[in-house]
Amino acid sequence: MAADTVLTISSWAAPVHTMNKHVFPWMISEMEKCSGGSLSAKIEYGLASPPAQYDTVRDGVADFGWIVYGYTPGKFEATKIVEMPGNTGDAQQMSVAFQKTHEKFLAAAKEAKGVQVLANYVHGPGHINTVKEISSYKDVVGMKLRVGGGVANDVGTALGVAGVNMPAPAVYESISSGVTEGVFFPLETMYAFKIAEMAKFTYRNPQGMYTTAFGLIMNDDTYNDLSAAHRKCIDDMRGVSMASQIGKYWLEADVLGKQKFEEMGGKITDANAAEQAYFAEKTAGIEAQIIDGLNGRGIDGDAALAYYRSLLP
Q: What residues form DSSP beta bridges with 142?
């Protein structure tokens, strides 16, 4: 039996990316199982650039999408709390903590308009990945690195990087053409965005350098127009369990990315204690700035951060 309702998912990144290969197929299958096949969805590529995804879903061009909160500067302040240095854990642990913190604190800021936020999540720990090997944070001063938006920009600035902003899918071309010398990225990108082909060196901070906050969103009108039974299918799936499932797929993508990276001769170097201390000192101002941003949105920033970190390993 054909589904009565087939919704549109706006996506970006390559079909091999975990969102397209695992997350959305899982979500579609859950919707179909729950509705006895009467509610389904299909992935559409190329509806909008990554920074325009939020508007695309809010305006009803697509019913679902995934957004990088940091791609719309000034709009989302509350979500930066999960992106900052000093947050530890893997993609699944941080995603669950993010969703719980969103429900307890961040949602009150009502930053996302015209959409339902079904789940908040993050990619795994972000690292510095370069064409030339580096052995210290001092080596990145003046280096042209893609930084990516959100708190990653602030980290790059604090370290003295000549930051270049661009959406993730443009990074491969920018490194291969020599426009950038590397990128702030998690290990999953080594495979998902083919970064391992060019950037053979990863510099990693065990204390957490940054991550990126994402939202899986749904158009408000689409949600409200669903039948009660179909709406229940969405509600049963959303929230902490969905954040956990998405985080698990991203964690698995990091494991795969690391494996592909090492197969292609990639080398990972962990920052030593002195380098970690240097990094902490350089980036120390970021936390206060983010807490101020949260307070400005009517959220107790200190309490929200303390709660978020209490959920991390």
A: none
